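Assess this today:

___
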Amino acid sequence: MSTTPPPGPPATPGPSPAPGPPPSAPAAGAPTRTDRLLAALAGLVAGYAGLAVAALGTVVARPEAGPVPAVGDTVVDHSPAGVKEWAIRTFGENDKRVLETGIMVLLVVLAALLGRLAPRSRPAALAGVGVLGLAGALAAVTRPDSTSAVDALPSLAGALAAGFVLYVLAVRLPGPRPVPAPVPEGSLPAPEERPPAPADRRRFLLTGAVVTAGATGVLLVARATGATRSENAAASREALRLPRPASPAKPVPPGARLPVAGISPFITPNGDFYRVDTALVVPRLDAGTWRLNVHGRGVPRARVFTLPELLRREVIERDITLACVSNEVGGPYVGNARWLGVRLADLLRECGVRPPSRGGPADQLVARSADGMTIGSPVEEVMDGRDALLAFGMNGQPLPFAHGFPVRMVVPGLYGYVSACKWLTSLELTTFAAYDAYWVPRGWAARAPIKTQSRIDTPQAFAKVAAGPRPVPVAGVAWAQHRGISKVQVRVDDGPWRDAELAAQDSRDTWRQWVYRWHPVPGDHTLAVRAVDGTGAVQTGRTSDPMPNGATGRHTITVTVTGGSTAARAPGRAGAPGPGGRPGPSSWWPS
């Protein structure tokens, strides 16, 4: 008997699964990953072309009008003091480079985003390029040093070039594909729309390569042309022959330089001298075309001076220490140099200027720099007999470009932000009531005589030193320009203040080296220093920040002495380390 089951009714076929893309396929209308990468690449190529054309535009305008320096300077001008302080503490002497790098990174990101936007909405992407161009142009023409609407040219020309390149590349990229509408059951399908033309990736890449090569050529031309302008300025500096001073500086006393390793040299080399300014692009002025305009309130004989005219005047040479108001206690923004120039007071008197004590109507001298900086100095101090200079020489050489070539101001006894204008182009007599110089609206004091300060150079904070039969030299520098230093004292832990050995004094306008011979015992120790100025005033121990008119306090460091049992540690040791760290030179603070 058969066991085969009888045949059943035929199986009713179930509904077949709806066709659709595999799970990994992109949704209908969405660009592929390659499409998105190519779109971002289009934005980057367009941005590169725009920056290259903008660089060429700076040849017609000036280097400072380029979009990156113009925007960077605007950021510096409008950054809160807390942001600037954080940048200085974090990046030190690299703060300018970090700012420029940050702007470039932002431009790269925005260029890639606009490239991604272009295939979906070319008008919106081109509008974004236009906004960036207008922002750069506005930053350039509103800078204090801007004197012409031509400064807008680099950013606007760069935006036009970037927009054109982005459009050309975007048309070679696929746009979003329309999603077909569902067809109701029983209805006739709508006529099929023509699909967008497929992207020609090979043509896109070829076009991008051609544009990149062309932009590189434009950039090389711009740099070569800009280099010619810079070379002309450099040639004018190399051709400058400094005159012999009619009043030379006195020889530095032999005892002014202490033979202590690690102490700051008495004369700071030009390459090591601190630089504090807001210029992202260092002005490179041609000495042959440089002019100094002296004018303003109470100037009956306004004049314009050239460098050859200054060189023919009575030239004097002086050793003067400069200090920056933004210097933290123990910081590096101080240096001593031998300056060559002419007396500023003599020049002002020739123009008919009188100080307020003699009936002059102006109490502020506003110096203007080629980069737009304004610095206000008190007329009374400039004309009271101190060696206030219009300097064109530094340590036997023409001023370096970074330190103000061809002419800068040097006034002993005043912080740099109220006296030491670099790249000087104008001197205007006015009043403190009528005009606020650059740093005053930003919270700094209008008047700022230098405060008495001292610094430990060696040993450095948190250093390890060995105990032994020979004393450990604790050494550094102290300064109180135009008052001089009469005494320096050192304290170990909570012990008494003890006098340090002072180097010979060069003048009351220079810093003074000092050394204390210390016989330590093993353990951790706190070292502090204070100075007494030429009037007998003792450096205050009250701690305050640099803003608004200079830091106060005593430089204090912690060191570890090795070479024996820590049980011999001196009693009463203070455990908290002092402000021994030193930030690097910066451009964002007043000097």
